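Thread: Newbie trying to understand structure tokens

Hi all, I'm a second-year student working on a class project, and my supervisor (Dr. K.) asked me to get a predicted structure for one chain before our next meeting. I've only ever worked with sequences, so writing a 3D structure as a token string is new to me. If someone could post the tokens and maybe explain what I'm looking at, I'd be very grateful. Here's the chain:
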Amino acid sequence: MRQITRARPIVAGQERMNPRIILLALGMFALGTDAFIVAGVLPVIAQETGVTEGLVGQLVTVFSLTYGLGAPILAALIGRWPRHRVLMGALGLLCLANLASALAPSFPFLLLTRILAGCFAAMYTPLAFAIGIDLAPPTKRSYALALVVSGLNIATVLGAPLGTWIGEQFGWRLSFTLVAALAGIACLFLMIGKLPKSATPVSLSLRERLGPVTHPRVLQALLPAFLWNVGVYVMYPYIALLLQQKIHISDVSVLLACFGLGIVLANWVSGSLASRFRPHRLVATFLVILIGIQCALPLVATTMIGGVIILLLWGMSFALLFIPQQQRLLNIAPEHANVILALNNSALYLGIAGGAAVGGFALRFFAVPQLAWIGAASMLVALCVVAIARQKK
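---
Reply by user tm_fold:
Sure, no problem. This is what the structure looks like when written as tokens:
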């Protein structure tokens, strides 16, 4: 008797993810490692280059400032270029910029390479999100976006601590070599995998990209995100100095991994909370918690156990703000969703740049532990802006 085999219908949930999305996430992993690595190896760079820790902190400033300002400008300039070529070119150039950082003969040259790395990172990130969504089936696009973003999150748990450990054991130059290798591998495999050509998207002018900033409510919603990132990054680039002084250890890679783990856990928790409570209430609540934890940071991080706990909570309280902040912006101007979320990303990186700059300047007059309280003051201003915005509704 002949057996008839019937074709099984394709269920939407069974559609397979394109493996090239993982390569996009690897590129984000390289970028995230690049963004966070200086904080872990800051004392080593300062010692070898003969400059102050505050000046080394400006490596974070120039990278983040270039990223924050460069993202909308570069997107407007290269908007009509083939996306797959720009993405692979940005990864390849990020690899070369980090090789240049590893080989930098002087601190000014190292500063220049961080500016270039920030430019190429600003080119890569939005394209990785867009192409990742295009590669996924319609029912899997949210998962594809989460997978690409996971590369950045994993970098805080694994990439930056690994780079810190390498820097402590073998020198900071090898830390940047690690980032170059990650970016180079991702670029090579994307070239082998051949990203599909996509239609040239409609390019927005720089005026159109920055247009929503002219709306007072949008500007009032972006300002707190800028301020609380200033508050966190007044302290974070110099966290290795604080931990070495308080706990008397040279290798802080495990403690940095705890901060990154807190960010990953928060991203998982924040989504469920955001679906149950109003975003404005969540932002205000999480800001209060973040202020309290940051004020306690130099007081609690005096033992290894205390450091593990407080850095985990610090990372969680900081990352819990991200999703409700996005929801606030989308509720204000849903018709400008793509542009306004890009502006929010720029505000975050400008906050990182501002915080690192303020922290480096403050080190001339204050001890490292006091940076945490200076940053908390910026968060308090952010909380006031959120409260004022709520009263105006």
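A couple of things are worth pointing out once you decode it. The two ends are 74 Å apart (CA to CA). Residues 20-49 form the longest helix (30 residues). Feel free to ask follow-ups in this thread.
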